[in-house]
Design a protein that fits this description.
Chains A, B: It is an enzyme of class 6 (ligase). Chains A, B: Residues 6-129 form the Nicotinate phosphoribosyltransferase N-terminal domain. Two copies of one chain form a homodimer. With 443 residues, chain A is α/β, with parallel strands linked by helices. In chain A, 36% of the residues lie in helices and 20% in strands. In chain A, strand 10, helix 13 (284-290) and strand 11 (297-300) form a beta-alpha-beta unit. Chain A is globular and about 80 Å long. Residues 432-443 of chain A have low confidence and may be disordered.
Chain lengths: 443, 443
Amino acid sequence: MSSTALLTDRYELTMLETAIASGLAEVPATFEVFARSLGGRGFGVVGGTGRLAEALRAFRFDDEIVRWLVDERVIGSPTARYLEHFRFSGSIAAYPDGELYFPGSPILRVDAPFGEGLLIETLILSILNFDTAVATAAARLRLAAGTATLIEMGSRRVHERAAVAAARAAWIAGFDSTSNLAAGQRYGVPTGGTMGHALVLAHPSERAAFEAQAAVIGSSTTALVDTYDIGHGIRQAIEAFGTDLAAIRIDSGNPFVEVRRARTLLDELGATKTRILISGDLDEGLVRRLVAEPVDGFGVGTKVVTGGGVPTAQLVYKLVAVERNGVAEPVAKLSANKETSGGRKAGYRRLRNHRIVEEFSIDPAVTVEPTDDSTLMALEVPVMVEGDILDPESAAQSRQRLADRLPTLGEDLDAILDATEPLFVCHHLGPSLPRSGHGQHDQ
Amino acid sequence: MSSTALLTDRYELTMLETAIASGLAEVPATFEVFARSLGGRGFGVVGGTGRLAEALRAFRFDDEIVRWLVDERVIGSPTARYLEHFRFSGSIAAYPDGELYFPGSPILRVDAPFGEGLLIETLILSILNFDTAVATAAARLRLAAGTATLIEMGSRRVHERAAVAAARAAWIAGFDSTSNLAAGQRYGVPTGGTMGHALVLAHPSERAAFEAQAAVIGSSTTALVDTYDIGHGIRQAIEAFGTDLAAIRIDSGNPFVEVRRARTLLDELGATKTRILISGDLDEGLVRRLVAEPVDGFGVGTKVVTGGGVPTAQLVYKLVAVERNGVAEPVAKLSANKETSGGRKAGYRRLRNHRIVEEFSIDPAVTVEPTDDSTLMALEVPVMVEGDILDPESAAQSRQRLADRLPTLGEDLDAILDATEPLFVCHHLGPSLPRSGHGQHDQ
């Protein structure tokens, strides 16, 4: 992986300049990632923490990068010297991929010298904001689809590298496979895909295309039957592949009409086990309604890889504590509608009868134990420990986590998916800051 | 750049298997990228064609990739042998970055053996769909912002590599700078950025933070004044930097109220030349209304890098011709609401008095000339010629193109931005396909 150091907002380096000059760069500080909003939804799903290790390992300022920064007058000599030897020395703890989160959840905490904590803000937020948006949209589609197969096929609708991250996030969130081969190679996500309209169009006839496919792959494939007329296409497919044909795919038309017709026709032709997959501009609402129809699987593209209407998770990265006189002092801004909650935090979730009761954050130095019959779950896991980057868990482990977590939201699926307000808010249990803040010290 | 070959949907390789077996892989074919819809807008702006050259150069199947594909049973031996020696041998022509487009515009044309044309579909669409979505949103923001400064600062809200492409696309579309350093290094986009709330919070007081910044950078900077109380912050900033302070930034609160208050206060303090920049969840609608206020510049994040409500350009890649008996025969699918228009096409635009009159596509082999006092503009430029990848123009050249093009849409800015239907549709001038298509040959 090429260096990730310049995947950074310029202001981080400008601030670093000032912090080096004022002596703040080396002062221990704590930064936190959290969301103020879930974008009108009931729950969020963390994505991207499993990609952080690789990105942090590649966060190095080589000679060429430092020279460019100096030439562009982004930094001066003291900062250049600082960056030449830069190696992140702090610790990072985070909610792992596949964990649920709510407004206020301390999704990631960086404990590091102030200057180091500044530098990695943009990279961390880029990774978490994109992957989390996709994981959340995908988890909702998984709930909506019930037991039907879900295929992520949106690679062509997002940036080419984002597509790989999206496929990983969607699989963690419960999709069965992806069309994206790089996600298969890199993260072990199962890949799938059979044919598009080009193959049909290129052959002299639809029948010729199916026969060519049957000769190479046999009947364990999916025939795309809507290039011309769907009924005609289904007949051609069954004649070419036989009644053992694994599946057909319909990518156009009114799916409510077409899947019933297709099921009837397939059954008439004796292809009673041939599955029906549909694709084409599907979203969560359509999937929820279509599960009642004879559909066996959904191919979802745009509406999963672009977050299903919420294309970024709106996570922010804020300084929450800085050491003064040897003590980590909480800090918070008071900007209108953008207040922050100061202090170092770790997240915990309380469950009763396997259902979430509450989520709270508390100083990680405090030991917490359940006081009743509820179960208490510590939510953060280490990503870096004093400069050592830990290997992340596999995508499969993250996928299992979310499969375990989704039922803790409750049994009423409609209520969970229809919620326009967060189902829970993570409360901070800790000393509250004086509302005056530090700004008033000036006067 | 690492190989881009697996940034591909699996079905391209499955289709290639069939095409190799049926002899179609080597048959000359033409594929086309176009949009059916502009997502409820009047015009689109092409982005991403300038990134294709680099991506295509890296589209190579090395031994490791081929082995993985075989091990995963994506492909068999004949396809493995084909890929080992794969080098794209076709030609690609495209609307360059910064060109306007409309539904039906033949944005990109691939003339290549069928098997080769299949393989690059996903990569091309990923690049064009993302970059075009950002370029279009950014161009609309540019029109909305008038002469005010526009700063792209959305890197933290999209995938870390997508952020670099987004910064490039936004700059081509008329933004003045980006926060993203990698876009500066790689594409020459001007970068900017001064301070965030963390710097203020880390210092013992707001005044101390401004003084530290002033000591390092002087007054040619932007002070972020809303960490605590905006009026207080402005007074502290002018005291620390002096009345020569270049700019203040306000990132919270009601901008309609705050910018007027800020202007009055700055003028009272004698900082009459200090500019006011605002940021924080700005979108096209807010920018259009805020240009009437005393705002000198806008920092836009989420709403430009995620496409301003249209996060993907919905461009598709379709087979439009395939050689049969030595002749390039047009092909088209008839799927409900997803019909395509067959035949090779190149795009032309007719202008009169520097305004667009119409856009049309026609067989590139046909010579077209204006028949009246209008000007005819050929829209496509070569990207690859028979396997040779051409160097793309610079982002600065693309930026100049769009600056020249935007006035050709007309003078009524409100009508252009308020349009919910395309202002033009690219008509195809050519022999129309029989509506029956090839599917009916089967019966």
